[in-house]
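Page 47, continued from p. 46.
Same chain as before, 102 aa.
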Amino acid sequence: MRLLLLAVIAALPAAAHADEAAERGEWLARQVCSNCHTISARAPAGRNPRSPPFSAIAARPDVTAGTIATYVRQPHANMPDHGLTARQAQDLAAFILAQKPR
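Result:
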């Protein structure tokens, strides 16, 4: 029982950090992504039907925080270059992964 309690206590800072990153990512998504993408179930639908909803991106089996963070920082034809920092990309990835359907 003590080991379980210690494991839970040790995980709290990491969970709090992940929540903070997702909150920063949500703010960023509302600023730069929501024009095209549906960013969450609570948000208005994105205006570009070719832009996948974040829940669909998060549901892909090969998607990780690292692949999302790398992808959003690479300029490509279907998405403008928003000039995101590494931390912004990581925060956005945390928010996108939080949209994974349960």
